[in-house]
Write a structure and sequence with these properties.
Chain A has about 350 residues and is an alpha/beta fold. The first copy, chain A, has 12 helices and 12 strands. Chains A, B: GO terms for molecular function: DNA-binding transcription factor activity; transcription cis-regulatory region binding.
Chain lengths: ~350, ~350
DNA sequence: GCACAAAATGAATACGTTTGCAAAACAGGC
DNA sequence: GCCTGTTTTGCAAACGTATTCATTTTGTGC
């Protein structure tokens, strides 16, 4: 099977007996064209199997109708679901997604360079580490950017994330009210703002009941590292009696390790609270008590914000923080008499 | 912040005091350019913040260096991992991935149209339903396509998948040798070749030990539907004593339902075998006996094949079927005396 | 310094569209 | 049929790059 040379609007024009402009106008929604020539053109187009070349179109319209989606890993189910939703949303608006996976330790600046070269109309970054300088560079080039689920100390770029601080605060006070004395924290990436905010909220939540954080170990949002972190936690003495984990993905690792490796009962021996509320967390084997992030809403806000910035000439950065919902399930001991809010 | 007009090679040329061609040559790896002018150009480029416009480049080179990745859902972890690997692989070859998510019941032909319009250099379809006519259309237009993990009754398009039949066959004979009498099958999408091949192998595997398939229910590769299918299975009488499930994603749903809803023990009351070997399957809570698909190898083969077809003028379709590995864990009763191979 | 090959350069063209502009076709009212 | 106002149409100029070809510059061995 040999490659056919692509058929152009000129060839269609010739066959239909009209000018090339007429053909072009047939494929532009708002252009002015008579019904008669439209029929002629569409007939010829179909006969030749013509499809407008979107590269050429992009060149002249200076818009690729493409969004760069950058993320660092897909092994936490939170992200695949977010990607799927974002994809559907953008497709509905006739935008395409260009996927960039950049490992946490990868050459982020290099990827950034390629993104900018690829002439995308906008950038949606999911939990990618964006240094302030890189963020500035984006803004300099004038490409709209929105950061999802991660923030950066630079006002100039739009960000949507959920209320990590209060999620952490709730976890801290809920565990305190459940009568726990030694609540520990399994962090995500130390460099991530999300993990830091959750941690801070957690510490403050405990403090509001006169407690301090018993220990902190680093799970780096990774399943295996979270297991290892759990082992370290329980090699300490005294052992924690509760754990707040920076993501459900890691929380499951913690649960598995607690139950099947350390032989502990949850929540009788240890309480566990996660963050995200991924589908796994609701499975009967886990029934994880957690803090729900409103994924749908986050994606909706982020895409809407990005599309808005693309359409408008002047880009003005906005920050949106979405509320979080405690999901009471079976892995954290419930406070006996008091109500929590 | 206002949008800056993009800086072009011509402006760089002017600043550097050279021709536009010289600038272009500086950014083409193999072009002939003196060290002296290269320095001048790069200096000017950096000063102006110039980046070659890949749209214009694509137009002239007739290659977008972009691959369409089409899939229907990301909620089975098999796919996110595959996507991540594919992405890394293509990025390393300086190709970009354009993501197309098309729901199982979505307008596939419409998406296909957009893919073709977007001038991708190749298409990688993961488990998407491609009708023969659509496949032919692809081949007609001359865009290289490779189907991953799904095949279609059309020789003209390249396909890589694993040995579904023998995976199913092994499951059937392993369950038979384990002394099960009433082994049932939870299918994936009925229209999918993978599910059908696994089913066929399973039936033949049972038959090789003189057994027949006790029942078939449809899970459509969906978690909830798999739960429902399990309920149906156990509403029947007599109940099955073993289940082969067309994917691990569904197998976990089956396990959850069996244990926590029907109060059955696995493998004492019922044995369960899955397919894929996703990370979840190895978690201590499940320890799912399953048939491993060599994801890494599948992606490697598929990407290599696609890149090869892109580079070569004439496209010749190839089929690659990769071997599958039984993973013996804890959800299926082991045969007592005999060895299986 | 010279002859010659090799390397580097610039002018010009092409890629396949969209779109402003002016000419042409059309419709309606007399 | 003529004048006016509105569509419809074709021409031609972009968009920003890669690349061919002819020309100029550089390098090498004497």
């Amino acid at each position: 099977m040999k490659r056919k040379p692509a058929v152009t609007s000129r060839e269609v024009a010739e066959l239909a007996g009209v000018s090339q402009s007429a053909v072009s106008r047939c494929f532009s929604p708002k252009a002015s064209i008579s019904e008669k020539t439209r029929r002629k053109v569409l007939k010829a187009a179909k006969e030749l199997g013509y499809r407008p070349n979107s590269i050429a179109r992009s060149l002249i319209t200076r818009s690729s109708r493409t969004i760069a989606l950058v993320l660092s890993t897909l092994d936490n189910m939170f992200y695949p679901l977010a990607v799927e939703k974002a994809s559907l949303r953008f497709q509905a608006e006739d935008y395409h997604l260009l996927l960039f996976v950049v490992p946490e330790d990868g050459d982020f600046a290099g990827v950034m360079d390629r993104i900018l070269q690829s002439q995308v109309d906008g950038i949606l970054m999911m939990s990618a580490l964006l240094t302030s300088s890189l963020a500035e560079e984006c803004v300099e080039t004038g490409v709209p950017v929105v950061l999802l689920n991660r923030n950066v100390a630079f006002e100039g770029v739009s960000q949507v994330y959920s209320d990590n601080y209060h999620g952490g605060f709730w976890a801290g006070s809920y565990l305190a009210m459940g009568g726990h004395q030694r609540a520990a924290f399994v962090s995500g990436l130390e460099s991530s703002s999300t993990s830091r905010r959750r941690h801070q909220g957690f510490v403050d939540g405990l403090a509001s009941h006169g407690l301090t954080c018993h220990a902190v170990v680093h799970g780096n949002y990774d399943f295996e590292q979270a297991r290892q972190a759990t082992r370290e936690l329980f090699a300490m003495s005294p052992r924690p009696d509760a754990i707040f984990v920076a993501s459900d993905h890691m929380a499951v690792a913690v649960l598995e390790t607690l139950r099947h490796e350390l032989g502990l009962r949850v929540p009788e021996d240890v309480s566990v609270i996660g963050f995200d509320d991924t589908p796994v967390s609701a499975w009967p084997s886990y029934r994880l008590t957690t803090v729900r992030q409103p994924v749908d809403q986050m994606i909706e806000e982020a895409t809407t914000l990005l599309l808005k910035q693309i359409r408008e000439e002047a880009v003005v950065a906005e920050h949106r923080v979405l509320p979080v919902t405690p999901i009471l399930r079976a892995t954290a001991r419930r406070p006996v008499a008091a109500s929590v809010d």
